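User: Hello, can you help with two protein structures?

Assistant: Certainly.
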Amino acid sequence: MAAHPRCSGPVSSRRGFLTAGAVGVGGLSLTDVMRLRAEGGESAMPDTSLIFIWLPGGPPHMETYDMKPDAPLDYRGLFRPIRSNVPGIDVCELLPLHAQCADKFNLIRSVAHQFADHGGGHKRFLTGRDPATPTGFVNDAPAVGSIVAKCRESRKNGLPNYISGTNPGRAGVDVYSFGAAYLGPAYTPFNVPGDPSEENFEVKNLTFSKETGKRLDDRLSLLQGFDSLRRSLDQSGLMEAGDQFNQLAVDMLTSPKAREAFDLAREPEHVRNRYGKHAWGQRALLARRLVEAGASFVTMVMEDPYQSGVERLNQGVYNWDSHAVNCHLFDDAKVRFPIYDQAVTALVEDLHQRGLTEKVMLVVTGEFGRTPRISEQIGSRTQVMQPGRDHWPNAMSMLVSGGGMRTGQVIGSTNDKGEHPVDRPLTPNDLWATVYRHLGINPSQAFPDHSGRPKPILPDGEVITELT
């Protein structure tokens, strides 16, 4: 897949953790995400969670949630807004299912930051801090999911507290700046790669044979004695940390709750169909199952729509990076938006129908918006002139729901060309302050960085009062 030579979207800078992390019990393995877990004390965290739908590349706010039908044609584009079931909330005509349930979510139209590169945008948005470098995807501060995993490490219910779902080959934490930085690799997400809509989809390393199961107790007893001996010889502390990793891995492997949560076959067929038999839809459904079972922070990536049997457009692009050189903005949207519309609205409605809107908060966003003015360029694959939009961190839109919040609101606004906020300007940190409040985490709490200096979870940011 060809892309703009200077901007091909997020790319992996190192191999994922999927093949690492041997548990040493009956040949079983889990990812290195669980290595180096530190024992945590009991806390009074509420029974709440977050589903974070990540749209890497940057969705176009003026084709989705902040349309400007009265702007000049080279700003407003080809699509028209449609009315929703809430007066004053209009969405793109390609999002009709959004229009039917707008009373169940909020749109924020006034978030902005200063980092226009994908790497800088990912790091700025996902960590709540200005990154040390404006490019690259390796965090120098922990991603929010890692902070949540650290603060909630005492919650032991058979599931990881931090889980992500991605395409195969894009599971490394540095693909999307999901890294834990100075908190350490124990607090990176447990990744679930693959297309959950496929018949043969399975979560690797969560099953074992009957023969292995029969031997499990004996092997554990043997390992316990052997590891005690190794610990007495180990002065670095790494051996003990490895033991914790082994124990957590075994807990997951022997937990019916974990296996059931990941098993989409337990869902009625009509529910799976409502979400859509597509990687995006089934990831959204899996996210709901995981938080319902007790996971604290579940990130699902909706990046490439051209999978699960969807024919790839020559003028389409794998992520939301809709430069004219990458894709025909409007042709790509005609494929991408209906899949997105189905998956996100199914999740919104399902959370409401299952009574999860107090427990679960939902956030759907990318790292920034797109330029208000449309540009044209020769496509790298089509070799013809086509329309697109470039990076624009000065204004972006996002969807939020659940978390006990009032819904059916539009929060903030941009000017008549969608260039910058004019009402209720917000930053990513205001969103995260709101998320931390929902999760019962004090954002002024500090953790030591690599030099030992205490770093507060958030350097700034205020709770968005409209969402309380």
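That covers the first. Now for the second protein you mentioned:
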Amino acid sequence: MQNSTGGITRRRALTIVAATAATAVLPIPGSSSTARNIEWTGTALGADAKLILCSDDEARSRAAIADCLAEVERLENIFSLYRKGSEITRLNAAGHLAAPSHDMRLLLATSQTMSELTEGLYDPTVQPVWELYADWFTSNPGQDGPPAALVSQALERVGYHRMDIRADFVKLPPNGRLTLNGIAQGYITDRIADLLRTRGWTHVLVNMGELRALGSNSDGQSWKILLREANKGISLTNRSLATSAGEASTFSDNPAVSHLINPGTGRSPHQFRSLSVGHKSATVADALSTGLYAATPQHISRIAARIPGVRVWALDAGGEMRTFGEEVR
């Protein structure tokens, strides 16, 4: 299940509505020591983003934030679907890309691994289906989704296993299109967290579309995260959290057709209102929250058991919270 070519996607919508309601993830920091929380807010891959650094040295914090923003800029030039000339834009335009960057090769390889682990429920080549829906609702506002025949035609262009990924060359399936929006926010979150960690930062909360906590808050406690729609608090220390929620981002006024698309059926899944995944890696959590949103509870249980350190919180359509995987303390 992926999202868009630009503007608001499921990740961006989740972040944007964090201040008002719905299915957002909201960090709730606090400080009781001499260090304080120094915050930056802005955007990354078009999504609302935030950095919180616990420090008593504001100049050092601002310098670190500037370095992080330079890294975000570099990665946007690789993964942004709405930035002209980015690697992924050039790949989609030509269907192939020579001399892909190290980050592109690494994330594509990780994407294929996550596709295998989720048995195809996460598939970065589902973009043709997303584009079909976007074009359909632009031309047919207020109507239901595209007819089955058009969905089937778009699905013929989908298939992660048909990507050809080499050290010096990437090729998409015939007439294929790629989106990494279901994993790139997690990857950028990890890159920023790792950059800060290697420079000695030990009390940080990174939100680049997904969340990753380094160490504790400045008061020595875990970072407190609120899953708003489920009204459930989660503690993060050296962990990541990613969330998917269909109704947070739709193509039209019809809540049944969201930006989250099952790459097997070409339709929006409805068994969950929101699904959150905890893991040490924001990249892994991001891809899993994308793919598992289309899974049955039995499927989630089976997949979560394969991946050490995974915890899943799934709020079903009836409002019941179900948990899967390891409980990390």
